[in-house]
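Please predict the structure of the following assembly.
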Amino acid sequence: MKKAFTIALVGQPNSGKSTLFNVLADRKAMASNFSGTSVEVSRSDMVARGRVFHLVDLPGIYSLNPGDEAENVTLRFLMEQPVDLIVNVVDASLLSRSLELTVELAELGIPMVIALNMWDEADRKGLRIYPEKLEERLGIKVRPTSALYGKGVTRLVETSYRCLVGGCESPKRLPYTSHMEELVMELEKRIQTQIAPPMRGTSRFYAIKLLENPESCPQPFVKALVELVEELRGRIQESHHVEAFEAVAYERHHLAMKMTEEISHFVDRRSRSLRDRLDRYLLHPVSGQFFMLLYMVLFFAAIFQIGGLLSGWLEPLLDRIPPLYTGLRETFPFWWHTLNGAYLGLAGALGIVLPYFLPLSFLTALFMDTGYLARMAFLMDGVMHRIGLHGKSVAPFIMGLGCSVPAVYATRIIENRRDRTLTALLIPFIPCSARTAVIFALAAAYAGPFGAVFVYLLVAVVIGFTGKLLTLFMGKPTGLVLEIPDLRIPSPAVSLRKTWTMLREFIFVAVPFLIAGSMVMSWLEMAGIDSVVNSFTGPFLKSVLGLPAALGAVLIFAFFRKELVLIMAAAALGAGALTNLPMTQEQIMVFVVFVTFYFPCFSTFVVMWKEFGARIAWASAGISLLVATIAAVAVRLLW
Amino acid sequence: MLQIDLLHAPDNQELRVVDIMTGPCPRRRLISMGIHPGDLLIKYKSAHWGPVLVRNVTQNATRIAIGRGLAQKIIVSP
């Protein structure tokens, strides 16, 4: 068996790593035109010329000095995991800044290939780049690509293959200015013997890292050298009049600037592109806000319309199934319950959730690729500050409209622990696709479009209020620094592929779960166990929320998947269809509001625990339950 | 040489970064995102609320939004 090589994609945020990864691998990572959408390490296998390669997509980093959790993940991976080849994804349209990271990666001394991505974008900006000059300068292969349109990818794969199988060079040494270089070499000599596996990277890399940021190196290793390192850092500060970290950053900055000058030049600087002019309106404090509101209204109206249309097609088809097994009800009650449970699960999944899930996934994917999300973060920063957050929290919030789980992961792009925790605590309040289905199927169906709008307004109020309240305990937010990428035209093909990935997961993971859950409910009902649960929760539901006691078991089970609520509610209340639940409009609204807020679902709870620890996970659960009760009671009193 | 903080600096003209007077963490962040002392920035017209929008002209980079509090601590000269 031949060795399977590991290839790591490394680049700055928004340089197109995930898009490239998606093109290379069969599995799709979440990519978008927003800095830092990939906050987890995505892995996949790629086959080239009959050999398998492990492909790793690392979170985007501006430099190898971790400022946030996502950057820390990348640095640790490169220092500890056996990476055979780094594919450095460089945003060609932002050459000078991107090369600063390239210089830093070159110091690692791991074999490297450069993908000059967004080649078309650089071209449009009037920037002419000579890849062969960069090859010469760095001593490694450079390939122009345009991952979004799949251009140049085949050549990149070919080059990487040849590099791995035929042996490839590590990048050339890029010397710093003489004074700094002397210090680096002095330290390098001392540590040469101490760089032993499992540590990855050359002694030069660790020498530089020790000088600029000793905390990022393995601690036992630092301990042995601490005196020398402190002395050298002191010398740098004395001679450069800035901290060692900055002095090193300037060295890379100058190397990158010089390289950029050598390998590229502007052919024509176009005055103002259409996109720049568009941005003037999109980022304008008044017209920008107006456009954002309009956009959100259209976004949800489209989901509502398309969802209604799709469910109108699917429902008559699903309605044909129950008559097929009604005969069993008298003769084999157990089989009837089993089949009916399975049917209700299937009908709920395909008839209610899927119609809204599909347009939501596709439109979100399209939207993420345009780069508008960063503009929303910019526009919302002022408002978010009022509730104790900042603009960057907008990205996880928007992702939360799809599913809370990736949204909680996405909080990793927020540098400050306090801001990150607060954002994560608020995420479970954002209606995910499961709850969107509940809102549309119940609130909109029973109380008209206004019912759905009301729930979303309530969500906004609840988030604002809870955020404000939590700020009292958690202090003030830190400042925002956020890149606003250029607007891009999204590729429908890429969005369709992303939707397909999400759809596949829905069909193979969620649907079986829904069917099984619904079957279990049906058995419990047959055995009369649900009434035991209901007798416990009944008093609370009846007296506080004014809901039928039969919904108790439903709410407990919906903890696993909130889509289950719909199907089980219909089953528990003995209604054949959702359109004739024996509940008043007021009860429906109270129920929807309670379901929207009452508890993060099981998966969210687990992720919360993993990312923030038990305390925050339980705090989130407690806060949600409290908020749900207050909001539901408020609706009961006001509706 | 006139020096002013970025928040109050004039719009639509080149500004040279003189100093970043924030704490070490935001300073690192700004530097790694491509705002170094010595660089030329252009500040876009902005509202009286919300973050400040700048573009690094030296690096011909994308725009960066900087919160008002931080912008106040970045010293530039027109």
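Chain A touches chain B through 40 residues (CB under 8 Å). The first strand of chain A starts at residue 5 and ends at 11.
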